[in-house]
Amino acid sequence: MKSNELVLKTQNIEKYFYDPIQFKVLDNVSFEVYKGEFLTLVGKSGSGKSTLLYCLSTMDTKFNGDLEILGEKINGKKIDDLAEIRNQHIGFVFQFHYLLPEFSCLKNVMLPALKLGKYTYEEVEEKAYQKLDILGLRDQALKPASKLSGGQQQRVSIARAMINNPQIIMCDEPTGNLDSKNTNIVFDIFKQLAHDFNQTIIAVTHDNDFAANSDRTIELADGRVIN
Amino acid sequence: MRFPVNYDIAITHVVTRKKQTLVAALGVTIGVAIYLFMNSLSSGFSSYSRNNIFQTNAHIKIYKNDEISSPLTQHKNSVSVILNPQITTLSKTLINPNTLLDKIKKEPYITNAIAQVDFSAFYNRGNTQIKGSGSGVNMLQYAAMFNTPKYMVAGSVQDLQGNLNGIIIGKGISEKLNLGLGDNITVSSSYNVTKVLRIVGIFNMGNSISDDSKCYVNISTAQQFLKQGNSYVTTIYANTPDPDNTQPYVKKLQNITNYTVEDWKTTNADVISGDNTRKTMMNAISFSILVVAAFGIYNILSATISQKINDIAILKATGFKSKDVIRIFVAEALIMGLIGTTVGLCIGAILIKIMSGVYIGGPVGYFPIHFEAPIFVRSFVLGLIITLCAGYFPAKKAASVDPVEIFRR
Ligand SMILES: Nc1ncnc2c1ncn2[C@@H]1O[C@H](COP(=O)(O)OP(=O)(O)OP(=O)(O)O)[C@@H](O)[C@H]1O
Ligand SMILES: [Mg+2]
Predict the structure, then answer these.
(1) What phi and psi values does residue B246 have, to the nearest 5 degrees?
(2) What is the pLDDT of residue B363?
């Protein structure tokens, strides 16, 4: 359940694109996200949702303003340190699954944990099976990622985002390619992650039902938070 | 066997793209095989010609060089007058050769030194005459220095020792004059001394210059051919511990004597420079082939990276650092390079084995090519270094992929 523990905080984030003309994509974006919260970002196409998410993800560092994740100031950190933060604390789900086609589903899920290096290979394998189990994919574990259906692939990518038990899972239109049945499955998983496992979900979405059923929705328009 | 995750990914990439891996490895295989083969060949030729040189040359040679008359000058400021410059050397002899020889032998860095009397010789039989050169030597000492017994095809070097009427001749002379062991041969010198000597040995050095013209006699016999007394010596040969580094010894010896001190490299400068030219060319050509092979790896890796740009983006998003990405792709290059280099060394070795059995006739006999461990090591190391470079640049490019740009697509 939503607690008062802060996991992410932005203050006056603004970002420009200079190509082809100077253009302010994000303008004075400030909000706070709490532990166990299922937050959705909505807004018209081109309003800057993805751009904001990439800023929050620590992958895009070219913005002004302050970003704090788990009490740590992100601004000015080295690229390698940011990679470590993402590895430990942030999971990603995109519209496209971005699974490595030559690896099994299981291995795809395991990779971020193997990179983390905190557990032995066998332990990581066991954890990966658990995550796949949660997503109803245990029996697909050893298939190559390229041999699964779109919905299955998306669920594998969610399992991958979960493998290191990150505090935050960030999603850019995670259900954009899915039918309503799969969308519901994904929604339920997110809800469960937030409410049962106390993880934080920040999801960009175009799906009004999806947003409406989340804990809180932030609406962007022309790079500004309007709601 | 479980590898760290970076290498696990690299191996999976290489294994799932067998065809590309093999094509890249094949390029390196050919490059390394040719590099190994050509360098072994050039090294074989070099040691062949070096052996040839040391059949008749010691490391250092001391002799009296011809002197040219200098301008006649009376005073500092007067005009120099050159009157018909000509060789003023009256005798080729080293003065007091035995004292000099003893002195040289006492130098700590001299391993061996002998005196020699050279003369022009004419071998006669009936109307046939062969022009050649003779050396008066202490045969046992000479044999120890130049390993002559190895080349004897008839008789022995011992039979010449103390035998003033004996002579050892080259195989070519023996064949042309149809004279064998125990036969008498008429030898005359440019000083019009003619002697009938008994052939006590025949050598075959495998090089026509020696075999068709050279003979050995005792020192006093040679001195008689030159109408000289027993202190007449034309050359002193000396050996040092390191034939490749004779210059310092030459300098030291030059301090002892005024005569010309020359090392074997100076004496055989033409042969050695020819050798070096061949070596350099073979090296350059084979190295270029290796570099071209490395481009194969570069291309295939670059293609892999363009295809896998999504994978690279998600790896970076999930916490792989730039250096991890570099490791992944450099490891892929190294795997291809390692396969290529290893197979290349095997193929090179097979080529060497085949070539060493090819008879090219003449004095060379079989192709002078051998297995030389240092060249194998050099080819291996070079093959890997080059694949490392070929892998590093695409890997660097992969590491600089900005995941945000990829996810935006
Ligand atoms: N690399 C870029 N260079 C310049 N302008 C860009 C770049 N990426 C995005 N933009 C612009 O920034 C604005 C916001 O883009 P963004 O992708 O954040 O929108 P979005 O809200 O995610 O839209 P959608 O719902 O269609 O995904 C758009 O007007 C877009 O044209
Ligand atoms: Mg978007």
Answers:
(1) -90, -15
(2) 66
pLDDT under 50 in chain A at which residues?
1
By the CB < 8 Å criterion, does A184 face chain B?
no
Report which of B163, B172, B173, B168 is spatially closest to residue B200, judged by C-alpha positions: B168
Residues in A closer than 8 angstroms to B8, CB to CB, are 114
- What confidence tens digit (pLDDT) does each residue in A153-199 have? 999 999 999 999 999 999 999 998 888 888 998 899 999 999 999 99
Cα A14 to ligand 2 centre (Å):
17
For chain A, list the domains and their CATH numbers: 6-225 (3.40.50.300)
- Sign of CA pseudo-dihedral B270, B276, B279, B285: negative
Q: What is the pTM of this model?
A: 0.82
pLDDT in tens, A8-28: 999 999 999 998 899 999 999
**Cis check: omega of the bond before A20, within 30 degrees of 0:** yes
Identity of the residue in A92, A116, A121 whose CB atom sits nearest the CB atom of B317: A92
Return the structure tokens found at B357: 């059995």
Tell me if A98 and B404 make a contact (CB, 8 A cut-off): no
Phi, psi dihedrals of residue B179, rounded to the nearest 5°? -120, 135
Strand order in the sheet with A168-172: A90-93, A168-172, A200-204, A38-43, A216-221, A224-225
Ligand 1: does its nearest atom lie under 6 Å from the Cβ of A139?
Answer: no
Chain B closest-CA separation from residue A2 CA (Å): 26
From chain B, pick out residues whose CB is under 8 angstroms from the CB of A80. Answer: 321-323
Provide the pLDDT confidence category of residue B82 given band limits of 50, 70 and 90.
low
Nearest CB to A60: which of B319, B323, B404?
B404
Closest CA to A12 of A33, A2, A26: A26
Angstrom distance (rounded) from CA B24 to CA B343: 12
pLDDT tens sequence across B224-233: 999 988 888 8
Judging contacts by C-beta atoms under 8 Å, the chain A residues touching residue B7 are none
Q: Does the C-beta of A151 come closer than 6 Å to ligand 1?
A: no
User: Which residue's C-alpha comes closest to atom 24 of ligand 1?
Assistant: A45
- pLDDT confidence tier of residue B367, bands split at 50, 70 and 90: confident
